[in-house]
């Protein structure tokens, strides 16, 4: 394992040797010198004067400062001009003393008060203005020349002064192409970069606007000009070292489009829209972006920031070891299966300095035939025997001592399995849970899917029908959900119902009254005129994620019939049912979903809209294809099923919703029983959930 020579500890050795010459102390000091250094950081974003107290064991730091961005002016002053971007400065290997307190300042953004008073941006510095210093961006100009704020001329120029080892000036605002005519807007300047300047704002007149220029050396891009008064702001800059430079704003983008603003450099923060008086991307990007020339008087710049990192000998700007040690726990529990090969990585590390060493405590028993990698943290192998649920601790440490510790609950079961609960075809109701499911012995994790049933177009017990199509059912998913052997879940799978605007409730799995997995059923059409309002789509309610079914197709008169909506999919929504007098039912919009049924423009009693396609339960597969309207065809083409539901040729020529979750197509209201029911809902549970998952965009494994 790599160790680090700390200048502070070497100083300690020399002091001890020169003053005491004690062999014991010398030996202890040498050991201390080889310990891991103190690693850390402090980021200041609160504007104004701040203090930082040097931690014990820290003798040098590296610092980056970003100044505040200048305010743009607004159309209210007939001067929609942009502000300049704040400068960036950094300095490495600044000597500090543990326990001492150091002053610093975080630059505030420029802005205009509600009463119309201009406030200048302020500078950022650390230690003193001669140690590390970044100059503020100026406020926007007037229509004819420099504005005067607090007695200081302002032309929208970016901060030009940066003191330290490196950095870059802020970008300038755009300049008017016709002096004295500023009904148009000028873009704000981008924040300075680590080795280059922020981009300049775009210029403009009443007919032509120019793009902002890109930043350089990791600086933010300049905002675009505008032929109106909604010009783009300058992009900000990030604090974690030099990255890609921000692109300039695009003059052909709408003021409500973020691309009109200069984009952030070096992984700066995303821009935020000013929604006062309309959505305008005129607020400077953090940190240090200049405000754009806005619709109103409020086009503020962005605040600055100061970041301190240590030890300086190891972590230096613009690019060496500046990320923070970040731990991501991918799994909190893993229920593996005997005889099934596996490879899981419970913990991932980013922002480490040097290689990471992983350890696990206690060691994984050898009789499981699983191994643990100390270089990657991966648990892999093919288990040969069961192992009861047990807690293990995975610890990490990098080359400078940044460390973490996370627990994972691991078990190995002897079997895999599944169970499916499906609703009834042709309707029916329930008043409480339909079933219960008891978790089998040795099962500690599950994955599950719920599909709501499709809506119906049979809306009265006497057989009357709606012409509009019904909605498809939603989906909901659980992956690697932890359970305990013997735990009892209530299972609800409602059935398609009749009635105007009726919505069958849900497909739901709950424990002790709390829903853990829930998908809403598709809705029935709502209008008593039989053809007014289509059935609404079912939607995701509870689980790790889920999607909505397709809406039914609206009938356009008292004669034509809409198609049923398709069931939701594994990674997208179901297809919308076709609308009469239009050309087709809509294909599914997401992966593995059912498509909507085609409409029918047959005004006779035999005309029906095609039923919506359903969804298979065995994992993501082919998406249902769009169904075209065919002139003269009495019954619209049936929606195709998504994800390998199987052969539905028996549904051709019908308006039945397909299993699972397809919405019913419209029927002829004057013909009894011309309407019909939607497809059934269902819930499928499978285990172990660690190995068998319903991940989006991935087929389920180990069917």
Q: Beta fraction of the residues?
A: 15-25%
- The total beta strand count reads 35
The helix/strand class is mainly beta
Largest sheet geometry: 5 strands, antiparallel
Uncertain spans: 1-18, 24-34, 696-703
Strand arrangement in the largest pleated sheet: 1-14-3-4-13
N- to C-terminal separation? 43 Å
The number of distinct helices, counting runs of at least 4 residues, comes to 2
Mean pLDDT: 82
The Rg value, from CA coordinates, equals: 33 Å
The geometry reads as: flat
Q: What is the helical fraction, as a range of percent? A: under 10%
Defining key terms:
five-stranded antiparallel sheet; 3% helix; 703 residues; disordered N terminus; mainly beta; 24% strand
Structural account:
- The protein has 703 residues and is mainly β.
- 3% of the residues lie in helices and 24% in strands.
- It has two helices and 35 strands.
- The protein has helices at 7-19, 23-33, and strands spanning 40-44, 48-53, 60-66, 88-95, 101-106, 111-112, 118-119, 124-126, 132-134, 147-149, 152-154, 162-163, 166-168, 305-310, 326-329, 333-337, 342-344, 347-350, 357-361, 370-372, 379-381, 387-397, 403-413, 417-422, 435-438, 445-451, 475-482, 488-493, 506-511, 514-520, 540-542, 545-547, 584-585, 627-628, 682-687.
- The strands form ten sheets. Strands 1-14-3-4-13 form a five-stranded antiparallel sheet, with no helix packed on it.
- A hairpin with a 6-residue loop joins strand 20 (370-372) and strand 21.
- Helix 1 (7-19) runs antiparallel to helix 2.
- 57% of the residues are buried.
- Mean pLDDT is 82; it is low at 1-18, 24-34 and 696-703.
